[in-house]
């Protein structure tokens, strides 16, 4: 009986640890990863002005707009 109780305690510790790690991942890390992925894919779809003058004015970033002519945003220069 003592062995079964020890295994149950170990199982509970593992389940609680996985729950804590999953909560941390999905509440802190995943939103950041998702935001960076969406921004990067948005920059890949955009048409950008990466001339040296624009990069000097925007601290090394390019000035980009999406094809629908919406609001402009900055993307990292990859040249």
Would you mind describing this structure in some detail?
The mean pLDDT is 84. The protein has a three-stranded antiparallel sheet with strand order 1-2-3. It is rod-shaped, with a radius of gyration of 24 Å. Strand 2 and strand 3 (73-76) form a beta hairpin. The chain is α+β, with helices and mostly antiparallel strands. The chain is built from two helices and three strands, in the order αβαββ. The chain starts with a helix and ends with a strand. It folds into two domains: 1-45; 46-79, no CATH class. 3% of the residues are buried. The protein is 63% helix and 15% strand.
What topology emerges from the helices and strands here?
Layout: H1 2-45, E1 47-49, H2 52-57, E2 61-65, E3 73-76
Antiparallel strand pairs: 1-2, 2-3
Q: Could you list some keywords that capture this structure?
A:
79 residues; alpha+beta; 2 domains; 3-stranded antiparallel beta sheet; 3 strands
State the gist of this model:
The chain is α+β, with helices and mostly antiparallel strands and 79 residues long.
């Amino acid at each position: 009986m003592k062995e079964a109780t020890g295994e149950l305690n170990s199982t509970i510790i593992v389940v609680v640890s996985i729950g804590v790690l999953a909560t941390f991942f999905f509440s802190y890390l995943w939103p950041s990863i998702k935001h960076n992925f969406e921004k990067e894919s948005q920059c890949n779809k955009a048409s950008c002005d990466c001339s040296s003058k624009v990069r000097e004015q925007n601290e090394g970033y390019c000035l980009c707009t999406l094809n629908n002519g919406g609001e402009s945003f900055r993307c990292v220069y990859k040249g």
